[in-house]
Amino acid sequence: MMLHKQSTILITGATSGFGEAIARLAAQEWKAPLTLILTGRRIERLKALQTELAKGSVSVEIASFDIQDSNAVANFAKTFHSQLSNLDVLVNNAGLAAGLHTIQEGELADWNAMIDTNLKGLLYVSRAILPHMIAKKSGHIVNIGSVAGREVYPKGNVYAATKHAVAALTEAMRIDTLGSGIRVTNIEPGKSETEFSLVRYKGDETKAAAEYKGMRALQPQDIAEAVLWSLSRPQHVNIQEILIMPTDQASARDVYRS
Ligand code: NDP
Ligand code: 8X3
């Protein structure tokens, strides 16, 4: 089982939400020496997480860069070449929703941020990592998709398009690497209480809080547990996708609020 094997895990977007929770849970649950490589733009948060998690058999390396910038991703890949050539797990988690508008009223800067992060950033990192995994004939890529990768909801247009693309790329990765022993999983959460809505509403705390009002949203720990469970399946088992919803959310559009 993976959790009992000495491993190196790269998590993008580890400065908050799911990425941070996945790092914490892996550090807590791993039964063998573990190296975490944590990335995001907010260096102070990466440093704090490194200080918190690096103890015992867990070592933590951090790298602060903007995943939208292909040169920055290439520099990261170069600097961390030796660690990445032994990488066991890549969690493609960094992402965002920016704004909530109809297409006819859409903000181009928002569209670019979502496409450049959720889609192109994920591709840049995967392109840097996959050749190493193929060379060693093992590895697990966990993509963080969304219920919005299966359904579209009002004003969710471009965000949903990027997450549909994550679903397509997950399938494409499995097809392109077939026979290499590499596993590829898409974890697709519904409404989850992270900084996601604060980012979507550009820091408007009232609007962000309203997203979760009167309903019990998923918590980052719920998603971290699904990721760890997927990783811990035997090598011959690939979890293709997991759609995880709050009990209070029946579909992307149907939310029960008390
Ligand atoms: P958070 O906003 O809490 O976390 C997002 C993470 O992505 C942060 O660590 C952020 O780091 C990182 N990130 C964003 N943009 C960039 C960038 N340009 N370069 C590098 N890192 C970046 O949200 P979540 O934890 O909720 O989001 C994680 C993933 O889960 C996203 O892909 C999101 O689409 C997806 N998701 C979220 C759901 C939800 O309801 N919360 C539901 C379904 C999917 P920093 O700002 O420091 O760069
Ligand atoms: C985020 C989930 O439903 O808020 O991917 O778009 S949702």
Question: What does this molecule look like?
Answer:
- With 258 residues, the chain is α/β, with parallel strands linked by helices.
- It has a single domain, classed as Rossmann fold.
- Helices cover 43% and strands 16% of the residues.
- The protein is built from 9 helices and 7 strands; from the N terminus they run E-H-E-H-E-H-H-E-H-E-H-E-H-H-H-E.
- It has helices spanning 17-29, 43-53, 70-79, 81-84, 108-136, 157-176, 196-200, 205-211, 220-231; strands at 7-11, 34-40, 58-64, 89-92, 139-144, 182-189, 241-244.
- A 7-stranded parallel beta sheet has the order 3-2-1-4-5-6-7, with helices on both faces.
- Helix 2 links the parallel strand 2 (34-40) and strand 3 (58-64).
- Bound molecules: NADPH dihydro-nicotinamide-adenine-dinucleotide phosphate and 2-hydroxyethylsulfonic acid.
